Amino acid sequence: MANMNMIQALNSAMDIMLGRDPSVVLMGEDIGYFGGVFRATEGLQRKYGEQRVLDTPIAEGGIVAAAIGMGVNGLRPVAEIQFADYIYPGFDQIASELARIRYRSAGEFHAPVTIRTPCGGGIRGGQTHSQSPEGIFTHVSGLKVVMPSNPYDAKGLLITSIEDDDPVIFFEPKRLYNGPFDGDPNKPAVPWSAHPKGLVNEGYYTVPLGKADIVRSGTDVTVVTYGTMVFVALAAAAALGLDAEIIDLRSLVPLDVDTLCSSVRKTGRCVVAHEATRFSGFGAEILSVVQEECFWDLEAPIQRVAGWDTPYPHAFEWEYFPGQQRVRTALTAVMEPA
Amino acid sequence: MSQFVFKMPDLGEGTVEAEIVAWHTKPGESVDEDQVIVEVMTDKAAVEVPAPVSGRVVSITGEPGDKIAVGSPLIVFDTAAAPTVDSPRAAAVAAQAAAVEAPVAPAQAQVVAAAAAPVAPRSGRVMTSPANRRRAREAGVDLATVAGSGPGGRILRSDLALGSQPTPRDVSAETPAVRATVPETTEIKVIGLRRLIAQRMTEAKRTIPHFAYVEEVDVTELESLRQHLNGSLPQAVPSLTYLPFVVLALTRALDSFPQCNACYDATREVLVRHRAVHVGVATQTPDGLKVPVVRNAQGLSVWDLAAEIRRVSERARANTATRDELVGSTITVTSLGKLGGIASTPVINAPEVAIIGLNKAAERPVVHGGTIVVRRIMNLSSSFDHRFVDGYDAAAMIQMLKGLLEHPATIFIPKVQTS
User: To the nearest whole angstrom, how far is the Cα of A263 from the nearest Cα of chain B?
Assistant: First the structure.
């Protein structure tokens, strides 16, 4: 076991998969020679060569399209889209080709493509480096959508995603690359070395898709969240002295309905929190599932915490980011006497 | 709907809170003005509180045993829902009744309607959480009949008051012999008068250093006098007991021992001696021990004392004593009559400093003038607050009381004036 931040854990996952499986290739903008803008692929081209770790043109549509072709022809590509904000040029390839290739070919072809992309705000990135578009991809049938919240899960989930024979969109909350973040930008940064989930097995291991993690078990209220908001929710519930059950979904598709619904059946109260915008966001899907599965156990209306329905701003980032105060407001509302 | 919030009234000078003894209404019920809705208890007196308005009870505050501060909301009425035909359901029932019973006068129909639908069903949708709807459904509760105490009249889980007991299992079938012999326990909430008694007894025993003094009194002559007086009573007048004689003698003795007729004000650290003798009479009532007060006993004849002791005791037993009749004693007398035993250690009725206990009077062989004779003997078992009454004074006071009772004529003869 070694202390790793999320970058190092992801690097370790790709390193191991490049070593284990000769069909694994990495591709993306500046990932080879330079090692990636966030250093996630640092040293891998040197170690595995230019045939395995490819620098691509700045053309996301081309990156995804090439990855699909490689996948269909027997490779196992891991494509990096430098920021999730840049993924839209590749969206037609993802939604129209990648997601449907197995269906359209009646199972004759499939594309085991993993698309890694850093997402989320809290890094003073403004509208072009802060988006959380996971809900756009969860809406596309045929895609798996994953978002880890810590180095241990990141490595295990990425290995599982690479090994998966179908496409996975792998979102990396970039605010969590270097340490857990509770939503307060004025606090000194906490490194992953100070967190138990920063202790990562150096070898091969997997974390299954479709299995949520109960980060903290509790009886008062269920908070369903993922990514950066896991730590914000933990801090907000603790500040209110609530015995909250915090569920980190880890994979949005497939969704671990059993874990989240058995929790809501236990607590009778539910708050859903994500960084992404609220309207038609993934939180709405969780609300629907909870309502369908747990309606007769609900003590109070389900609350949603999300980003405002505007583009991610350049200024006023901390007014936009759904921080502890907004989670506390939702928790207070959901805890009203029933 | 118009709401009327009725606050806990001030039930006597200095009352800051009152304990709820029993509710005579519940949310959802309609009440008439002046109908007794709740019984509350202040320091000693139980008071029945009437409804100030007519209407439907929306919510009540506190359970029996809870203390509610004077001025805080006690009960909320919906005054728009007076107990008349004011809802579609009640009207429908009335119409049905009218149809079945042929020609029925409107007034009669109203009575039928009111009886059939005592809880006015709310108009519109019941507001409550899905979880509460399921609980109500599983318990067979019609939510339309439940009054909500939550925001906007929403029904809370606590309003359902379903409890969470699982369906009791039939355990007798499993181990019948053992189960049958194990006695069940009964839990009795310590509330109301019992709680007050418990508090006052604990307080008295914890703070007052008691000492007991037991002396035997030859009441042969007192018994003779008593028999004589009782033998010539008019029919309507009840027989005299020892008690009025003892109280009368006590007032005489206290004249010489004012330190025993006092109350201790702990907050000011002042001992208040009383010229008047207000005698508390420990009385067993169906609710428990009460101490009604005979005021100004020092000015009463033995007949008046007997009548007053009877009167206040009966009022205490019938729960009709006013607060004034239950507070303000300066010394207390306790007597269990035939159950009086040989000796006892009575607990002082704080803040008083002395309590006089009468034990059973019985004929005993005693040495009298060198021979063994049969005399009627009664012990006096008394307790004193040793902080303020020295043993010497207590003994002297009881000896004086003994002298008065053994020579009953002296009870009625004025003290010798020295100069």
Answer: 15
